[in-house]
Design a protein that fits this description.
Mean pLDDT: 94
Keywords: Acetylation, Aminoacyl-tRNA synthetase, ATP-binding, Ligase, Nucleotide-binding, Protein biosynthesis
EC number: 6.1.1.19
CATH topology of one domain: Isoleucyl-tRNA Synthetase, Domain 1
Shape: flat
Structural class: alpha/beta
Catalytic activity: tRNA(Arg) + L-arginine + ATP = L-arginyl-tRNA(Arg) + AMP + diphosphate
Protein name: arginine--tRNA ligase
Function: Forms part of a macromolecular complex that catalyzes the attachment of specific amino acids to cognate tRNAs during protein synthesis.
Number of helices: 23
Helix content: 40-55%
């Protein structure tokens, strides 16, 4: 986090401050006018736009105003702009759009400052202090499969972007570690491994097989089923033997999960269903005291306007369910963890469930009615991972694909490709291994994150491991090439930062400089809209802008070498921060 250096805010934010002054000066009688600043879609017109003129004209026309249309309103806004080092010129177009061209000297100075003070000074400023990101959340005693990939990757990236924006993030793994399935698992453990307390975790073996075998027994053996149902009561009643068995099963699962998290470089703090269980009665009492809980067909429910079925919070048998746990977790996060924003990353199939949970929280007064007010809760839905046949991604034997196997295959394919290019003889075994990991795991992550999360995407190793087009491989190699250019120059880049300066004389230098400067607002937009693909689009465009610059502007050996090396370094710095936010490890040589 940037503490000793000033966070400058995005270009959009800095322009908004200037236009706010202008709007107040030009239209002092109109309240609540907020500057509407956007990046220009067509760079021929300008770099940014201020789009307030039309809406202002609609407010003042017919009220004896001196203005005769949105264009004069736009001109008045320009005329009242305070003097600034930022703006080269402004002009109006169409129905009062104000096009803004930034001074290239100001762009250059902003990049120079970032190189000295660090990219943390380009962090966006968000209106939130503490956020809970609830993601990954696999079920105990079940393998993590490809379905968990999206929640884990998307959640981690959202957490990283918020952390970069100086928000305190509570990364929560809401694992399924409580419920009726534990009765059959515990009883099966007692039967299969009589000395289970002394046995090691390896005695359970493959958890997936263990789960399937216990489920088969549960479905086909009435005596076992009855014992399993009693075991649930014993576990929930806190009997020590059952608690110990439950803990052992959970521990085996955690070790499996950790193998995946370690490969993905993902850090989470577990607060599973069992954590919230003791708080459920209190949360339901609070809802009941508000008159929200009603009896319906033997269950206790909350009726939500516009929904055909109610939200069941206590089942007919008196047991709790997902809704009771999720409402309790929401209450806990608001009242105990003091979160301003709670973000839930699950597949789109759970959207309606969370809509109902959030609606119930609003009825209880836990959340404000207005969607834009804080504290707030957001559901981050995502689509399916498909195979080449357009169906859910599975193995040939119709099993779901284990996540560990998937990641290991990506790494081994990358390693093979590097060996085919002769890297095994050029690099140390460690370098080969690290590069294969960085590129393989990065490719899997980027192939997911570059899509709008709401869409389904096809998992295809050949496409994601291609070094052409919008892939992690292409982008990682582009970064390595920039590092190679700097190395080949033989110059000390740290020294150049102190003594050199950036000049954006060539149009491709200016285009690259402007795109670098837009990093902060892209991260901000990706955070606010909870869309990591916006950062991927930015990163790919950055690599394209750099290629254009490098093709048309000689760097090493030119008269402009110093300033262009600094532009290379700035591009590499921003690329590395993009990679970090996406959870991808950069590579420095290829």
């Amino acid at each position: 986090m940037a503490t000793d250096k000033e966070i400058v805010g995005s270009v959009k934010e800095q322009l908004a401050k200037l236009f706010e002054e202008s709007l107040r000066a030009a239209f002092p009688d109109i309240e609540d006018v907020h500057p509407m600043i956007a990046i220009c879609n067509d760079s021929r017109h300008g770099d940014y736009q201020c789009n307030n003129a039309m809406s202002l004209w609609n407010k003042i026309k017919g009220q004896g105003t001196q203005f005769r249309g949105p264009q004069p309103v736009g001109k008045a806004i320009i005329d009242n702009l305070p003097a600034s080092e930022m703006i080269e010129r402004c002009s109006t177009a169409g129905p009062g759009f104000i096009n803004v061209v930034l001074k290239k000297q100001w762009i250059a100075k902003s990049i120079e400052r970032m190189l000295i003070d660090g990219i943390e000074t380009w962090a966006p400023k968000l209106p939130v202090k503490r956020t809970v990101v609830d993601f990954s959340s696999p079920n105990i005693a079940k393998e993590m499969h490809v379905g968990h990939l999206r929640s884990t990757i998307i959640g981690d990236t959202l957490a990283r972007m918020l952390e970069f924006s100086n928000v305190e993030v509570l990364r929560r793994n809401h694992v399924g570690d409580w419920g009726t399935q534990f009765g059959m698992l515990i009883e099966y453990l007692f039967d299969k491994i009589p000395n289970w307390e002394a046995a090691s975790a390896q005695a359970i073996g493959d958890l997936q097989a263990f789960y399937k075998a216990s489920k088969q027994r549960f479905d086909n053996d009435p005596d076992f089923k009855e014992r399993a149902q009693k075991a649930v009561v014993s576990l929930q009643g806190g009997e020590e033997k059952y608690r110990k068995a439950w803990t052992q099963i959970c521990e085996v699962s955690r070790e499996e999960f950790q193998r995946v998290y370690q490969r993905l470089g993902v850090h989470l703090e577990e607060k599973g269903e069992s954590f919230y269980n003791p708080y459920i009665p209190k949360a339901l009492d609070l809802l009941n005291n508000k008159g929200l809980i009603q009896e319906s067909e033997g269950a206790r429910v909350i009726f939500i306007e516009g929904k055909k079925i109610p939200l069941i919070v206590v089942k007919r048998d008196g047991g709790f369910n997902y809704a009771s746990t999720d409402l309790t977790a929401l209450w806990y996060r608001l009242n105990e963890e003091k979160a301003d924003w709670m973000i839930y990353v699950t597949d789109v199939g759970q959207r309606e469930h969370f809509e109902m949970v959030f609606a119930a929280a609003k009825l209880a007064g836990w959340l404000p009615q207005n969607e834009n007010d804080f504290p707030k809760a957001s559901h981050v839905g995502f689509g399916l991972v498909l195979g080449d046949d357009g169906k859910r991604f599975r193995t040939r034997s119709t099993e779901v694909v284990k996540l560990v196997d998937l990641l290991d295959e990506a790494k081994s394919r990358c390693k093979l490709a590097l060996e085919e290019r002769g890297k095994a003889t050029e690099w140390t075994a460690e370098e080969l291994e690290q590069t294969a990991e960085a590129v393989g795991y990065g490719a899997v992550k980027y192939a997911d994150l570059k899509n709008n999360r709401l869409t389904n995407y096809t998992f295809n190793f050949d496409q994601m491991l291609s070094d052409k087009g919008n892939t992690a491989v292409y982008l990682l190699y582009a970064h390595a090439r920039i590092c190679s250019i700097i190395r080949k120059s033989g110059r000390d880049i740290e020294e150049l930062k102190k003594v050199g300066g950036i000049v954006l004389a060539h149009p491709d230098e200016r285009a690259l400089g402007l795109h670098l400067l837009q990093f902060a607002e892209i991260v901000e937009e990706a955070c606010i809209n909870l869309l990591p693909n916006l950062l991927c689009e930015y990163l790919y465009k950055l690599s394209e802008d750099f290629t254009k610059f490098y093709t048309n502007c000689q760097v090493v050996g030119s008269a402009e070498e110093t300033r262009r090396l600094l532009l290379c370094e700035a591009t590499a710095v921003v690329m590395r921060k993009c990679f970090y936010l996406l959870g991808i490890t950069p590579v420095y040589k290829i």
